[in-house]
Amino acid sequence: MERIERSSFHEERFQRWLLQSMIGEKGFLTLVALDDDEVVGYGSIHLTGPKPARVISIAVLPERRGAGIGRSILEAMEAECESLGVASLCLEVAISNLVALHLYVAKGYEVKGTIPGYYGEGKDAFYMVKDLSGRTRTKSKDEAF
Ligand SMILES: CC(C)(COP(=O)(O)OP(=O)(O)OC[C@H]1O[C@@H](n2cnc3c(N)ncnc32)[C@H](O)[C@@H]1OP(=O)(O)O)[C@@H](O)C(=O)NCCC(=O)NCCS
Fold first, then answer.
1. What is the residue extent of each domain of the chain?
2. How many whole angstroms from 21 Cα to the centroid of ligand 1?
3. pTM for the whole thing?
4. 2-144 belongs to which CATH class?
5. Which ligand 1 atom sits closest to the C-alpha of 65?
6. Which of 120, 69, 112, 66 is nearest to 96 (CA)?
7. How close are the terminal C-alpha atoms of the chain, in Å?
8. Which of 51, 64, 67, 113 sits at a 20 to 30 Å CA gap from 100?
9. Distances (CA, A) of 111 to 18, 50, 78, 83, 94
């Protein structure tokens, strides 16, 4: 997971202690995608209460991207959340991160607001939410924004 973080994020990447919390502490739902014994992607959700739980990270090794791994991780985490009775999921994503935005919009997340400077000066984020209670239908990009 640390290798994936290093290759996926810069100053905003998670430190080892937080990755360890994601794996070991109650309140986190963390899934990894394995190819043989290699961790090629991971995702983590903080189960903060009845609603909404927060997607805190999802990342795939650069050389393994574009093959459906990120989507599979997100879908598996959502299914797990549903079975735990989580009503909705929220997340923040950099406005400039078009790949992640495409993924979230395709999976039915809706932009609920903008957080100026969330990732540092001039680096704004969208705040997005997905309702799991009625299994939100998948929306087109135009509908979601
Ligand atoms: C975002 C990320 C996890 C997606 O994982 P992935 O395995 O590459 O994505 P998938 O192959 O499952 O593709 C899922 C969807 O993402 C979008 N997507 C993937 N690659 C894309 C590209 N090059 N351009 C535009 N959209 C793209 C598409 O909507 C795609 O669905 P589709 O194939 O049905 O069109 C991955 O790119 C990553 O690790 N990025 C760096 C870390 C990061 O930014 N994480 C998100 C933080 S909020």
1. 2-144
2. 25
3. 0.89
4. alpha beta
5. 8
6. 120
7. 32
8. 51
9. 27, 21, 18, 24, 12
